[in-house]
Write a structure and sequence with these properties.
- By secondary structure, the protein is of the alpha/beta class.
- About 40% of the residues lie in helices and about 10% in strands.
- The protein is built from 26 helices and 21 strands.
- A 7-stranded parallel sheet has the order 5-6-4-7-8-3-9, with helices on both faces.
- It starts with 5 loop residues before the first strand and ends in a 15-residue tail after the last strand.
């Protein structure tokens, strides 16, 4: 009688209820093949799945599996566990040589993450391929061993082949990891895995969107701005019939860009048989508005929001079940989540990226990609568009700053502009006057704000926003907005602000830049602390947005007496100041072009400040890729933001209870995002040390000292016994 081999156990169950290893390998192989089929590499996914756990055929692994109770018994990153992933990596390299090395990265890393190809660390792939491991030869009698592997599903470019191959490794890795996670999840509890299902399909969503847009057109007042919004929508629907590729949508703020771009994506996806739409937004703080608009039109269950980082320190059963895989037709996420995932080495973060293939990506405010990482970001977009059946839309209110031109040879080629004449559209939507003010002290600024019945003031830092707000809060109708307010809190504030504006009540708002992109709000007067021209344009988009003021709205740009914060803000603001001196209209297309020429196009190597692309290319000829090195370097937020869940109301408290006690936390983790704030690690450490934050399962941080979360300021500790980290509001 043949010996039985198992992949996974269940607590308190006998061998008859365990998952047979052969069944797990077959399930993962078939699922990984279906995922990789989206980008023409189904057979690669199949073999990766078939071999990923063959190390479990060793007697040593089977003994350990039988001796250890618990859902984590198969996770090899736990201390004392048997290494079962190296066997498949060695097997692939032995049988398939160079092609096998591509598979070896994915197989070797399916628990611990993608390894570096070559390094001094014993976990690098070269050393793993030479490592002595337990005998797994019983595998030979279980599964076929003579695979046929076709060529790569794309042509290699001599200058880019290293990037192309490393990106393909990531895609195979993602397909394998997601298949492995899903099959394990289904075995552990098939009912609990159903939370990932139940989304409407794109055709159903397109029907709802069409009805909603037609209703908006019929009910819209007969104004010049609404007339042009309808033309913009028609341009998008016409362009949706075009072949897949790279598009730009250059529409002034207030032009209806959000819904028009979504309409393009829906029609384009249905025409080309694409599977999902991914809406990528610069800031966590504005996701809730776009997601709320989409839900109102498409239904409560139509949108998957993903922005908070619930990153466990080490892999376990709970973290695997909670990891996001973007298996939904419409995803709303952030630049940080999107691009950092594409350059990550961690299995939990990479499992979703295969679902980016065969999709439409809408990059909202595309010009806001981080300058030091601009070339790696563009290289990823280039690769997705050219090899992974992905259409990309670069949305901007200014101009297509990322397209190749005579000043910017490293830009994206073949970008098709959806709007026939963006320059003409800018002039048609011009509905404000801009005045450049001298440096203002905070006292002078607050005096000016008090003279306006309705005014928006946008500054560059949380600390400055708090100080300005404190100086005017004695007046009626004052509001403060901060990224340290959770999404549910900000949503409530926006509702109050819109109500006050519509009724003509006093409404004075002090905010950081979170209000600039994607927030549908309309003030007669806006003050903007000196910043980049693109940010000034966004701020201006919150002024006279509907064009109802016959004389136009007023936008005042001022320099704070405190100067500019270091880093990105200072660089963009100083660039803008230099450009503004040469132009009467600082938002004219000529001024914007000069701004981007100075900021992006003339910076050369500074657009890959950490030499990520050089690292990838360095030893690519030998198939050695520095996945872990790149992971550490590619950080849009350099110090890395971490999420704290705020028990803001009864709903939040129920979600926290679910995270605390449920063995299957994934659905609770999704819901918790509306109640999270992002803080820097040193801030989180200070809050933990003070006893203000509790850690749940080493993955979720919950604020328990709610006294420091004030209704009008977000996270601002006021308890005199509490040592407030000043960086919290910097």
């Amino acid at each position: 009688m043949d010996k039985k081999y198992y992949a996974h156990t269940l607590d308190g169950k006998t061998h008859s209820d365990w998952q047979p290893l052969k069944e797990h390998l077959k399930n993962v192989a078939e699922m990984a093949m279906s995922f990789a089929d989206a980008y023409g590499a189904g057979e690669w996914g199949y073999i990766a799945g078939l071999w990923h756990d063959i190390g479990k055929y060793s007697d040593e692994f089977q003994k350990m599996l039988g001796a250890e109770e618990g859902n984590d018994a198969h996770i090899e990153t736990k201390p004392g566990r048997v290494d079962h992933s190296t066997a498949g990596a060695q097997h692939a390299f032995k049988l398939l040589k160079d092609k096998g090395k591509i598979l070896a990265y994915a197989i070797a890393g399916h628990h611990a993450g993608l390894p570096d190809g070559k390094s001094n660390n014993s976990s690098c792939l070269i050393k793993r391929l030479e490592k002595r491991i337990y005998d797994y030869s019983s595998y030979q009698n279980q599964v076929f061993n003579n695979p046929r592997l076709n060529c790569l599903p794309f042509s290699l470019n001599q200058k880019r082949f290293g990037f192309q191959l490393s990106f393909f490794v990531r895609m195979i890795f993602s397909s394998l990891v997601d298949a492995d996670f899903l099959d394990t999840e289904a075995f552990m509890d098939s009912k609990k895995s159903l939370w990932r299902k139940g989304y409407p399909d794109l055709s159903e969503m397109d029907h709802k969107l069409t009805l909603a847009l037609n209703k908006l057109i019929v009910s819209a007042s007969n104004t010049l701005i609404n007339e042009h919004r309808i033309k913009i929508l028609k341009n998008c629907l016409d362009a949706a019939e075009s072949p897949q590729g790279l598009f730009s949508l250059t529409v002034p703020t207030g032009g209806g860009k959000t819904l028009s771009s979504l309409a393009f994506a829906m029609k384009h996806a249905l025409k080309h048989g694409l599977e999902r739409i991914i809406y990528v937004i610069p800031y966590t703080s504005i996701i809730e508005q776009n997601a709320a608009v989409f839900r109102e039109i498409l239904g409560e269950d139509a949108v998957l929001e993903h922005y908070s980082n619930f990153e466990p320190k080490e892999e376990d059963h709970r973290s695997r079940l909670a990891a996001e895989n973007w298996d939904a037709p419409l995803i709303v996420t952030t630049n940080v989540q999107f691009f950092e995932s594409l350059y990550s080495c961690r299995s939990s973060r990479c499992r979703k990226i295969h679902n980016i293939a065969k999709s439409v990506i809408i990059l909202d405010e595309a010009q806001m990609l981080p300058v030091p990482l601009l070339r790696p970001c563009m290289e990823a977009l280039r690769e997705l568009s050219s090899a992974y059946r992905t259409t990309i839309v670069l949305c901007t209110a200014t101009q297509p700053a990322l397209s190749t031109n005579e000043n910017f040879k490293d830009g994206l080629d073949g970008v098709l502009e959806i709007i026939p004449d963006p320059a003409k559209l800018y002039n048609l939507f011009k509905r404000i006057h801009i005045e450049i003010l001298p440096a203002l002290s905070d006292s002078v600024l607050s005096d000016r704000l008090k003279t306006h019945n309705q005014v928006l003031c946008i500054v560059n830092t949380r600390k400055h926003a708090r100080l300005v707000f404190e100086s005017i809060r004695c007046r009626e109708g004052c509001y403060h907005l901060s990224a340290l307010m959770c999404s549910a809190h900000r949503t409530k504030k926006f509702k109050e602000i819109r109500s006050a504006l519509s009724k003509g009540f006093p409404c004075r708002v002090v905010s950081t830049q979170l209000i600039e992109a994607g927030v549908d709000i309309d003030f007669p007067v806006v003050y903007r602390c000196t910043s980049g021209i693109d940010s000034i344009a966004q701020a201006a988009g919150r002024c006279n947005r509907e064009g109802k003021l016959p004389e136009g709205g007023m936008v005042y740009v001022f320099l704070s007496e405190t100067g500019l914060p270091p880093g990105h803000f200072r660089h963009t603001a100083e660039t803008a100041e230099a450009v503004i001196r040469h132009h009467d209209d600082p938002l004219s297309l000529e001024a914007v072009e000069e701004y981007f020429r100075t900021l992006y196009w003339m910076r050369g190597e500074q657009l890959d400040e950490y030499q990520i692309l050089d690292d990838i290319a360095e030893d690519a000829i030998k198939g050695n890729f520095p996945f872990r090195v790149v992971d550490k370097k590619f950080r849009i937020i350099k110090d890395g933001a971490e999420s704290i869940i705020i028990p803001w109301n009864g709903e939040a408290e129920k979600i926290i209870s679910g995270l605390r006690y449920s063995e299957y936390p994934a659905s609770f983790a999704r819901k918790a995002q509306r109640f999270t704030v992002q803080v820097y690690p040193k801030v989180l450490s200070s809050l933990v040390c003070s006893g203000s934050v509790e850690r749940l399962h080493d993955q979720y941080c919950v604020l328990i000292n709610t006294d420091i979360y004030r209704d009008d300021l977000g996270l601002c500790p006021e308890d005199p016994t509490f040592h407030r980290p000043e960086s919290l509001i910097e």
